[in-house]
Design goal:
Oligomer: homotrimer
Largest sheet of chain A: 8 strands, mixed
CATH class of chain A: Mainly Beta
Number of domains of chain A: 1
Strand order of the largest sheet of chain A: 3-6-9-12-15-18-20-21
Mean pLDDT of chain A: 92
Number of strands of chain A: 21
Strand content of chain A: 25-35%
Shape of chain A: globular
Chain lengths: ~160, ~160, ~160
């Protein structure tokens, strides 16, 4: 792990880090699992309950929330935002601020070898299949089949790259 | 407020913090007001002149700019970007860099109880009404009526969730 | 340059900083060039090989990757994400994690005086012409002519602002 005269890593004591994990500066991890050899860029937060497999790349400015599972070899671009609550609110019927348990977490799975392009937003309750590719700047609102390529807002199937 | 051996909070002396505000690491606040019990996540910047009401939740990676007012109980998802200048430029007619006063700030209001989904971008000069809901990944280019649900780029009205 | 009791700037020794550059907190720069009088906001990363001209404004939460050249006087809004690899993967055919050289960088040029609105994503291999304007929340998938205004996902030409 990176070491600096001034430590800018926030790694809670309950984080389970695999072997050979590489973390960059300005990272906030708590209550999560990070698999062997996975790399995590700057300005990334990974919440409690998130599970990140081995040999993933999580690029800068991304947010991996509670309820997200990334299998082995997943690529997450820069500025990718996961979510887990389709109808979030700050306060309840009594106008009091809602606590951590006052909503239903919608889990998301990104299967082995899939790639999510930079600047994408992924709604909660989604399955992204093995080796699927999500184009940069997409908003993923429904499941993505294995090996499919999707892009747009909302993300729809597109032709795969020539020669790929 | 959070305290750490290495302080990674940047709270300018002119910030007005309410009672019971919770701030996470890697936050940059200056010249703004934050209401009672509001929570602010990691990697958030709030600029001078922004006003955030009581019991709001501002999630990680979001940017609240000058000219933005959030009323009480507003939910801001992760990676939400406000803006206040529709035709920004770095330099002027003389090719010199423009100073802070060389543009017109377009104010935005997010009314009581509204929620803005993660990964959304909000243009300047917008009013988002009470209890309105902006879906994740939206680009909001015009006003949103109270209690409406909008989504997409540009954001358009959609059906509210069943049973909500 | 900003100085703080706790240093939260990461400026690698190989960065070439021009005269009068202004850097905010929580910035990560390595192997790049930054021109005279350019301003860089919080939570910004600039990768090796990126070249930023004089008198640019790079706003908070943005990511400037390898292969990007910004000419003089370019405005980059908040949360703007560049990319340089159209078909990224974390692992190769042998399931081992891919190294830094295992992909082809697609360079992007943003010409003199152009502005890119907040929350935009720019694909690799793009040329954005002189004084062009990219609207907030856009996904730029093809070249933008000089003086053009584009917006949307994918970004398409739109009418310029009245009186501009």
């Amino acid at each position: 792990m990176t070491a600096h005269p001034t430590n800018t890593l926030r790694i809670a004591s309950d984080v389970r880090l695999g072997k050979g994990v590489k973390l960059h500066d300005f990272v906030n991890l708590y209550g999560c699992e990070i698999g062997d050899e996975t790399r995590i860029g700057c300005f990334v937060e990974v919440q409690k309950g998130a599970k990140i497999g081995a040999r993933c790349k999580i690029s800068s400015h991304s947010f991996i929330c509670q309820g997200v599972t990334l299998e082995e070899g997943v690529f997450i671009g820069h500025g990718v935002i996961f979510s887990n609550d389709r109808w979030p609110r700050a306060t309840g019927a009594d106008a009091g601020i809602l606590g951590d348990g006052a909503w239903v977490c919608q889990p998301t799975l990104v299967a082995k070898g899939a790639s999510i392009g930079s600047g994408s937003t992924i709604l909660g309750g989604i399955v992204i299949g093995e080796n699927a590719m999500v184009g940069a700047g997409s908003v993923v609102t429904r499941d993505v089949p294995a090996n499919a390529t999707v892009a747009g807002n909302p993300a729809r199937p597109m032709n795969p790259p020539s020669g790929n």
